[in-house]
Amino acid sequence: MSILHEIHVTGQSIWYDFISRDFVRSGEMSRLVDAGIRGMTSNPTIFEKAIAESADYDDEIAALDGTFEGETPPSTSAIATALFITDVQMACDVIRPVYEASNGADGYISLEVSPYLADDTDGTIEEAARLYAAVNRANLMIKIPATPAGIPAIRRTIADGINVNVTLIFSREQYRDVAEAYIAGLEDRHAAGNPVDNIASVASVFVSRVDGMIDGMLEDIGQETAAELRGKAGLANARLIYRDFSEIFGAERFASLVAAGAARQRPLWASTSTKNPSYPDLLYIDNLIGPDTVNTVPPATLTAILDHGSSTAALGIFGTEDEVFFEKLEGAGIAVADVMTRLLSEGVMKFSASFDSLFEKIEEKRARLRAAAAE
Questions:
Q1: How far is CA 300 from CA 204, 275, 325, in A?
Q2: pLDDT digits 0-9 by tens, 25-47
Q3: Which helix (H) or strand (E) holds 203?
Q4: Which residues are catalytic?
């Protein structure tokens, strides 16, 4: 039994934050699933790297591009989406046994709606439905950002019976809005006479990015007290969100949905690679192990877990010390609510920039492949 299986005994599932065509086709994904990986996530940045930095997609790009003899070529966006769908379908099929063995608790692959729709509720709802139908796999999760426009889209998408991975959660306020949207979506679905025992969702809370921004602000302040606060905000925020999760999904309101077969929306710890080299490489892994959670890890972090990771549960019902910590941050001049708003805005912009870059690379490949075919 690997360390990943040992962690799962605590109630936490380790998902892999990576996807590429070669990773699936080579059998590497199957090997990691056997080792205990229980799901996979993707985002625009991951797809941008996979498609732009290899020739694995060139044949499909050429086929999608058409002959151009009087034929209108598909848009770059349409080609990109087709590439995403192929990868996700293959990955869903590889990990389907985990989905079946866990009765739908794990075994999911996540595919994100376009970041260009982050401020468009109706557009997000429509794209979520379109992608879910196109992939046509029960173990697909659609990723929707926890923006103000994304919250009502989450409720509607859950009500429509689509699994949702809510991404770009930074603040406790965001998290509570996300949990409310999930529960309200299940209530809408149940009231309409539809089953709720086949819906899964996770709430992706970004951890290290919180430290990245707050640490920088503390360094600018330069106070001795500020130095003592570095590297602690991400974990404190996650622990408080875990307390909120326990309270919300342990309340009487959700009990009626549990009776109908509904599952809790588990917190998923995202952005868990250590960005500061002076911090332990598994700072955001070992300290966030606990029941009813997921941790999604990039390749380097997974390697570290397999080498020297812990399988000891570290999460409990925290509160007072973490609340006092944030009071100290405010006292040091850090406006935490403003930080969380900035992080959300930057997160959307980073994913949009990855889409911009990906579309440019696909256009370059299209031109190169056309020229090669004409020779």
A1: 20, 12, 30
A2: 999 999 999 999 999 998 888 88
A3: strand 201-206
A4: 143
